[in-house]
Protein: Glutamate/tyrosine decarboxylase-like PLP-dependent enzyme
Amino acid sequence: MTDALTQLRSMQSADLPVHGGRTLAYVYDSGLPDIDRIGREAVASYAGSNGLDPTAFPSLLRMETEVVGMTADLLEAPETVVGTVTSGGTESVLLAVQTARDAHPGIERPRMVLPATAHAAFHKAAHYFGVEPVLVPVGPDFRADPAAMTAAMDERTVLVVASAPSYAHGVVDPVTEIAAAAAERGIRCHVDACIGGWVLPYAARLGRDVPAWTFAVEGVTSISVDLHKYAYAPKGTSVLLHRTPQLRRPQFFASAAWPGYTMLNSTMQSTKSGGPLAGAWAVMRSLGDDGYERLTRDVFEAVDRIRAGIGETAELAEVSDPDSTLIAVRTDASCDPFTVCDEMAARGWYVQPQMSYAGAPATVHLSVSAATLPHVPEFLEALGEAVAAAVAVGPVTVDPGVAEFIAGLDPLVLSDDDFDGLLVAAGLIGADAAGDPSTSSGHRLALPQRMAEVNAMLDLATPAMREALLVAFLDRLIRPSRH
Structure:
């Protein structure tokens, strides 16, 4: 057992750091060691508990109702509100879509109206549940266009979606107008506040200008908010709130059509560890309102200082005026965002590349945490160095032959040979390994130290082609490791 734990620590050393404020994607760090410890200990103490049956583990039931109550209070919910703790934002979104679909069994081909900037989880829900996504272009400020959203609603629409904020650009959609249009037509309106839901209310309390988006807005019928983001809870918790029990009822699943126990689920999971819920409850209780307000003050101070530094860097510019803690940055023609990301990684900072889409440029994406505040001077120094290095080498280019090869691919019939050709071109495998069964098992497939050229190739591809290439890549990565 000791050897296994030692090996775990060794393997983890190659991962991105989850503490220290230097990873500006995927993780959200309060910078408070005691809070991290409380969360970890709570997860461990409930790791064996099973949320399948709340009557068997009444402490989990109590924690869930209290977590939902704290969330409802924060989001200005009416007394009628009900909620469920899920495993994350994607599950909350999936359930919001499934519930809207199942509330209208008479609609054979249901649709949902999405701004083009809505999270990809809604596309996943569309794929799983057969709800057609109707994508509506956003305005030049990357916010949803209420008039265009309204025009897209019809008799088959079961759900309308707004973001608070959208992930890619960090802006809050005009929820008041969108929700009013949906309510006028008897359509549910879901606000995806997975990333902003636990920080925007405190931002408003601190006097920042935050557009209305909570249950105080008439017509909002459901909201999703993740606790493992800016509630700084351990990974694995989100809350889905519905304005009334009647709106939530189609979310539940029950089946007595077999000889075992009658299955009854409030989420997509049946068996689920009590650990994440206990971790979230413990962290939320420990921080309290005052703690979250302090952390919000810290994270927005970091955001403001980073934005000021970006404004003083000639080669960089923000693509939007963010309402929250997410910043999207473009480069001028002297360099490219993918090389900037590589250069930041070389300096110990992880920032996320975002591909170009619908005429919008590729960007560097920052999800700022409270823990980043003490390190902002180091971050800006590294960013300046990264930009200078990217300018020195010039924008990354893709070999014209490779670009032509990508343009000629059909995502619907992407073959192993096609994919091997791109792996060779990207330097992920050697030419002698193409078609080798061991390569297909992932033994010779390795990520390069620098991703700029790979990202530049993906950026040339259509969205459908990117999906096909990345699915093929993931398939290669997670083949079994046999000993």
Observations:
- The chain has 17 helices and 13 strands.
- The radius of gyration is 23 Å.
- The longest helix spans residues 275-311.
- The mean pLDDT is 94.
